[in-house]
Amino acid sequence: MQTDVKDKTEKLTRKDFVSDQAVRWCPGCGDYMILANMQKAFAQMDHKKEHFLSVSGIGCSSRITYYLDTYGIHSIHGRAIAVATGAKLAKPELNVWVFTGDGDCMAIGGNHFIHACRRNVDLNIIVFNNKIYGMTKGQSSPTTPAGLKTKTAPEGSYETPFNIGEVAIGAGATFFARVPDNDHKLMEDVMMQAYHHKGTSVIEVLQNCVIFTDGIHEQITGKETKDDNQVILEHGKPMVFGKEKNKGLCVNGMKLESAKIENSAADILIHDVSEPDSLMHLALAKMQFPHHPVAMGVIRKTESVSYEKSAHDAIAREKSRTDFKNASDLFRSGNTWDI
Amino acid sequence: MAEKILTPEVRKAVVRFSGDSGDGMQLTGDMFSQSSGWAGNDLTTTPDFPAEIRAPQGSVSGVSSFQIQIGGTEIYTPGDQVDVLVVMNPAALKANIGILKAGGTIIADSDSFSARNLKKADYESNPLEDGSLSDFHVIEAPATSLTKEALKDLGLENAAMIRSKNMFALGVVSFLFSRPLENTIKLLEKKFSTKPLLLEANKLALNAGFNFAESTEIIGASIVIPPANLPKGTYRNIDGNTAAAWGLLAAAENSGRKLSLSSYPITPASEILHELSARKDMGAIVFQAEDEIAAVCAAIGAAFSGNLSVTTTSGPGASLKSEAMGLAVISEIPLVLINVQRAGPSTGLPTKTEQSDLYQALYGRHGEAPLVVLAASSPDDCFFYSYEAAQIAMEHSTPVILLSDSYLASGTSPWRIPENGELPKINIPEFSKPAEEWEPYIRDPEFLNRYWKSPGDPGFEHRIGGLEKKENTGNLTYEPENHEKMTKIREEKIARIAKRIPDQTVMGAQSGKLLIVGWGSTHGAISTALTELLEDGEVNIGFAHFNYINPLPQNIEEIFAGFDEILICELNNGQFANYLRTKIPQFTYKQFNKVKGQPFFTSEIKAEIINTLTK
Description:
heterodimer; A: 339 residues; alpha/beta; Rossmann fold; eight-stranded mixed sheet; three-stranded antiparallel sheet; globular; B: alpha/beta; Pyruvate-ferredoxin Oxidoreductase, domain 3; 3 domains; six-stranded mixed sheet; disordered N terminus
């Protein structure tokens, strides 16, 4: 019997996931949107409330575990994914969510991130990407764009930033999605898709930090510009964008290219999240403003067995094969003698 | 030829099998240990591998050895010096002649003392012929040629025949110690059950060796070691790492919790990871992490999820885990860290033993971060102490560090398998009131432990984490008074565990002139030294060996007060001595230290004790 799925009659609402702790982010912070959408999405999921586990690292993003009324671990800097991996492997029936930021996840926690992607542990990882260290007050992060002035790069950063989707897919992630912090519908939809995906799901949220990088995503997410600068991908649908829906993505030689849709839409690419070959998913994840629209929605979602399932299948198999009924049988196997 | 020191009936003997890495010395030693167990002897073994995976064949650096001490009395060490040295080539002789007792016996494969092999071992002349071994009793056994002769009808290739010569050597040693071959043959039948040709080859070689020894009368009289007076029960030989792994399995079973192990490979701790990886049949959930930090963090996740959760490592890995151990301390979750110590700092001597991670275990975290520290003292009691580490962690909601070391990890000793119901019961404190009355940081009034609630327990949803928690509620708070109070509570929680651990015992004199103090893996050498001194009529010395490091047993001051002098022996620069100086400052502690990557020899301890007594 599956014990982790809630009764059909058991209805949870957003409020069931609101903790009694006062939320303490800066007014206008993008984190509020993520929290609200997460609570709404949680209420729609099939797991019983006691099977939710929220894990975070360190940074503004990671405070979220105190605001979600689930089991939670506010761990240490960079290690949320490692903690979550241990928890999920220990109890595969848990519904595990990891909340992390671009510094927490891509710098100090980078190793755990790539290995989670490689292993395909059934974790849902939300990376709050504001392209800066907020809590420690404004140092460069691994996603800080070149040229941006920060506390640690006062003359402008001269490092090449990570593209989170490229790293995730490159490391073998079976699910990658990107959403802006101001598109509630898309965020909730992506969260639910991640929930149903069996494996590591990475969601990058382009999140605004009102203090240190205010407006950093503005050209992509702003009301006036978003239609032309975002392409919202949907499985099985053509990759079109623009206010008039008159632009699309097509392949030109070895590259992706934006083109005006004239008489025929024949060359416009149709999105396929399930293609195992990651080539096109990488190309889509890497598209950057201003040369391309930035891809939003689920970019990659491929079928694969999750790590903890393989592990527990192996345990079940070995248990069914062994003659040991208990530890004592093991201890008395092999070469023993009596005195 | 010197007069033999071995008499037909002796109380104990040290045998060392030595040869090239490819000569199968570990297997040979293992089988001899097994037959010694069957003969009712107590024993302790230690392997000695070359550091390189494949050192040059025939060279001194490629010598692999296995040493065993067997006795009709209790045996706590593999022995300082060797009575019987089996050498399969000149390099093995060169590497080990220094630890052979004067008058000891050498059993040499004389066939292998060719000009070529002598040169590889840097011998200018053949030591079997040049008189340089005149202080020893040398048995020249042409193992290679006689093995080939015995196997000639099997149709094996030359190299395959030569590989069986270790069994020839075992046959000779079996005759020397009056061991019938039946049990050894049973072991071979088990080992080679699917390889009938190899089984036959090994049996023939074993018999050939035995018959050679018997018929050539090259061995004057064989030796009988009477059975030791060990407690009744079923025994097996076990090494420290397997024992530690099995202790965890037993603790999981007796607590009704699943076992999660999250580790990263490191010498000399990896065998615990290997053993539990192979114990999926017992339900062990094993995670080989991407690094040491991931390993301890995954262990924290598994502990919060309600499993008996363990991470294993050695010193350098323990350093990497130290930040996360702080998280385990402040979140007060049950977690076991086993540190199989090796010689440091840094990579140090990674295959050699040392007790120099004691400070790290006690103090190696940021902030005020007390936890429980235990130390195992023999290969077989790694079972008991890993069991107890798990028990204390789960019953007292605290991380526990268990210190083992390289010497215990790879050494073996007979382990009396516990009978059903013999192990202490594990009683994880239950919160008996309804969920509404529960708060994450309310405590058991006697021992101050939190109650362990995990995802899946309805109504107990709560958050833990690295930020300071308000007393009882567990809410975040920066209140100065609260932080101080919580710091004191965490300290007091560990201190109160002293009430449940056994009182410290003393071997030998209960009061008197000199108290020897040891901890961890030095037990064997020190207790053997003490036994020998007691037998010599030295009645004024006692020995207190510590397994409970933090908290310390409650009766120590009383014990220390009964002796004129206290001598602390440890394989570091004085870490336990300094710890005692801060904990129990009213006494003067003398030190005897060794930092050579080697265990203590009984003779060193004995000499130091005599030296201290006569000063």
